[in-house]
Amino acid sequence: MNYIEHLQNLLSPEQVTTNDVLREQHGRDESYHEPHLPDVVVFPKSAEEVSAILAFANEQLIPVVPFGLGTSLEGHVIPTKGGISLDLSLMNAVLEVRSEDFLVKVQPGVTRSQLNKELKKYGMFFSVDPGADATLGGMAATNASGTTSVRYGIMRDQVRDLEVVLANGDIIHTGGLAAKSSSGYHLNGLMIGSEGTLGVITELTLRVYGIPEKIVAGRATFNTVQEAVNSVVALKQAGIPMARIELVDKTSIEQVNHASGASFLEMPTLFLEFHGNESGLQSDVVFATELLNDNGCTGLSFEQDERARNQLWELRHNLAYTYIHSAPGKRLMSTDVVVPINSLPEAIENSRQKIESMNINAGIVGHVGDGNYHILLMVDMNDPQDILKAKELNEHVVEFALSLGGTCTGEHGVGSGKAKYQRLEHGLAYDWMKQIKQVFDPNNIMNPGKIFID
């Protein structure tokens, strides 16, 4: 009996497939990284089934790659060594809403929009908003963040507890329900961002928040990116509790207008959002307006209507897809670095100079409120020179960010695309990370080839 037949007996035949179309869907993500097909796609329905699969795979030395929705951008879910693609989409239940504790318990296949639809009944929402409607398990695996992290924090800040199945089939919990603990090692922090290299997340207990009484969104335009970024620094230094501060440069605004029929001024633009109560929020808006004008703002408009606000943020969230649709046949490369806030103007200016010196058509966008920005460019994967130019730009941006004390990835994760920068960023700590990997996964079956390349 081959191992695929064993999996069919272990679960049920309909949960195990070698269908070529499904294998192809599970052999890629949304990145430019080269696809690779798994041998088989498996759809578990419980932590116990995941445990049985991993115990068997560990015994037989079969690679296992967890799969959510495939929205990752650094090759995380690509099974570069073949083996099992472990699709968690059938584990998609919201298990419990603990409204008085501001906690919710979910399975890993639940999506962000699915959770917020359920939480709205309780007057609450889940804060992490990476743009893509990713699964919560995938968001924890990559330590996702997004537009609201400047106010509410990143994925790691929201996780109270995880149920994780380890490579040998053991099922553990990494936290609890309490708001804080000084007991033992911080296993939550270890598992979040581990990208399926240490185990499979099968349940999450997450912090949620009350829907704000008042929300105001706005757009501020500037003559230069430098002025826009200087405004971000000024807003941060003033302590205004911004919920979102997003930069969209002139090139990207042009893409938005062309794709959507919008008529935004084609200038560097900050997309802003304020959360709070009626009186406090109005004071914040007035103070922010003064600071923006002092830093060269040429135009400022605000939206309080929910539909108008949603349309504004939909355009921002769909920007990556706007680039994709603008260049059929090419693949998107999105860089992803974070630098200290006071170094942000220098870093973005350096990136723009490099883009122009290489004669590349690329836009700069980002969650600049926490120092995170991206360069979006389309790459012709059939043109070796195009690929080399894109990689040269990416390397330049990463190395400059690291020279400023930043990181090679703020939210996309390491995957295979950023693995080569790990030793440069972490130094000797990288060797200790590898030893942790060896303890949890001595046979290297868990998403092999990701994060660690040596």
What does this structure look like?
- Strands 12, 13, 14, 15, 16, 17, 18 and 19 form an 8-stranded antiparallel beta sheet that branches. This protein has a 5-stranded antiparallel beta sheet with strand order 5-6-10-8-9. A 4-stranded mixed beta sheet has the order 1-2-4-3, covered by helices on one side.
- It has 4 domains: 3-87, Uridine Diphospho-n-acetylenolpyruvylglucosamine Reductase, domain 2 (2-Layer Sandwich), CATH 3.30.43.10; 94-210, Uridine Diphospho-n-acetylenolpyruvylglucosamine Reductase, domain 3 (2-Layer Sandwich); 214-320, Alpha-Beta Plaits; 329-423, Alpha-Beta Plaits (2-Layer Sandwich).
- The chain is an alpha+beta fold and 454 residues long.
- The mean pLDDT is 94.
- The chain has helices at 3-10, 20-25, 47-60, 112-119, 136-142, 149-152, 155-158, 187-191, 225-237, 250-260, 278-294, 306-317, 319-326, 344-357, 384-403, 422-426, 429-440, and strands at 16-17, 40-42, 64-67, 84-87, 94-98, 103-106, 124-125, 159-166, 171-173, 199-207, 209-210, 214-221, 242-248, 269-276, 299-303, 331-334, 337-338, 363-367, 372-379.
- Residues 34-211 form the FAD-binding PCMH-type domain.
